[in-house]
Amino acid sequence: MDKKIIFSGVQPSGNITLGNYLGAIKNWVDLQKDYSCRYAIMDMHSITVRQDPAQLRKRTLDLLKLYIACGIDPEENLLFIQSQAPAHAQLAWVLNCYTYMGELSRMTQYKDKCAQHADNINAGLFTYPVLMAADILLYQADLVPVGKDQMQHIEITRDIAGRFNALYGDVFKIPEGFLPKAGAKVMSLTEPTKKMSKSDENPKAYISILDDFNVIAKKIKSAVTDSEGVVEYREGDETKAGINNLLTIMAAVTGRAVEDIAADYAGKGYGAFKADVAEAVVEHIRPIREKYDSLSGNKDYLVSIYTKGAEKACAISERTLQKVYKKVGFVL
Ligand code: ATP
Ligand code: LTN
């Protein structure tokens, strides 16, 4: 039987954080043996916020390296750069005409980004979820592993696909979102009621997978917690947001349950707990970093991966696009 299909991606808008890794990429690695996977680098999404062109080009290749370093096998899975498969932009245009202003204006990410970039509220920021729907639907994906913040975009993708199918028959597979057991929403280390974000202006708020190991340890040790001194997971208790976050991170990197981890620290202070979280995170990242460094200076290899990737991505996505063009009445 054919394997089910996964599609996902990350924007090359900054250095990958522990949140991106635990919320999304770690799951991609875990799922790759049971699914046929397509993972893209979402450069077209990233220009909804101003990017420096040289930086964007560099980050795109760094991200490809990071996908491989995290354990995604480029021989078994399709890895490609979004802008190299033109069908994404082409389908996005069509789907724009099947998406309502009202539903787009309810998107939390849109509202957040408008607040952060009041001087550049561009139309791309508004139609961002339509391009994301096109990404997913072109590959007829069954499953989309993402962090919690992206679930609203998966919902709108399902709505757009269902609306199109209702008019024209079964053109698109309706995809499901997929969240990790632990780490679906990693919080900022400095303001633990906010999500960890790679574009946070305070670098102490996030852990980058490419940070020095002693910087990672220092950031975890100085993470904002509370003054109670009790290592206990209390869902929904805002005063415990910092400790809840560190317990979640520890659970995600060790595979243990938060309650079991908390039990190890009964009667101990935050110092010992934070030191252990720092060590667990560093040890988890160490092999990723070693692989990443070994790929640096191997540009030809990366070029061959994304060139082959683009060819295959174009072939698959073009098939769906042609179906759509035929349904809406374009002359083929
Ligand atoms: P930006 O700050 O540029 O908006 P971001 O850090 O939010 O970026 P994205 O590229 O938007 O990252 O997201 C990539 C993937 O990582 C998505 O699947 C998203 O859900 C997931 N993700 C992002 N932040 C977190 C987080 N704090 N916890 C868990 N998952 C996250
Ligand atoms: N919006 C996503 C990135 C993204 C994506 C996708 C994720 C763009 N297209 C398709 C999954 C499937 C984000 O993480 N900010």
Structure description:
- L-tryptophan binds at residue 135.
- Its main location: cytoplasm.
- This is Tryptophan--tRNA ligase.
- A motif ('KMSKS' region) lies at residues 195-199.
- It is a single chain.
- By secondary structure, this protein is mainly alpha-helical.
- The chain is 54% helix and 7% strand.
- It is built from 13 helices and 5 strands.
- It has helices at residues 18-31, 43-46, 53-70, 87-96, 101-105, 108-116, 123-138, 151-168, 213-221, 241-254, 258-264, 270-295, 299-328; strands spanning 4-10, 35-41, 78-81, 143-145, 176-178.
- A 3-stranded parallel sheet has the order 1-2-3.
- Helix 8 (151-168) links the parallel strand 4 and strand 5 (176-178).
- Helix 3 (53-70) packs across helix 12 and helix 4 packs parallel to helix 13 (299-328).
- The protein binds adenosine-5'-triphosphate and L-tryptophanamide.
SSE sequence, one letter per element:
EHEHHEHHHHEHEHHHHH
The average pLDDT score comes to: 96
Please give the order of strands in the largest beta sheet. Answer: 1-2-3
Strand content: 5-15%
Q: Outline, from the CA principal axes? A: globular
Small-molecule components bound: adenosine-5'-triphosphate, L-tryptophanamide
Span of the ends, CA to CA: 32 Å
Instruction: Please mark out the parts with pLDDT under 50 across 5 or more consecutive residues, or reply none.
Output: none
Q: Give the helix/strand class.
A: mainly alpha
Helix content: 40-55%
- Counted beta strands: 5
Largest sheet: 3 strands, parallel
Radius of gyration: 21 Å
Report the total helices.
Answer: 13
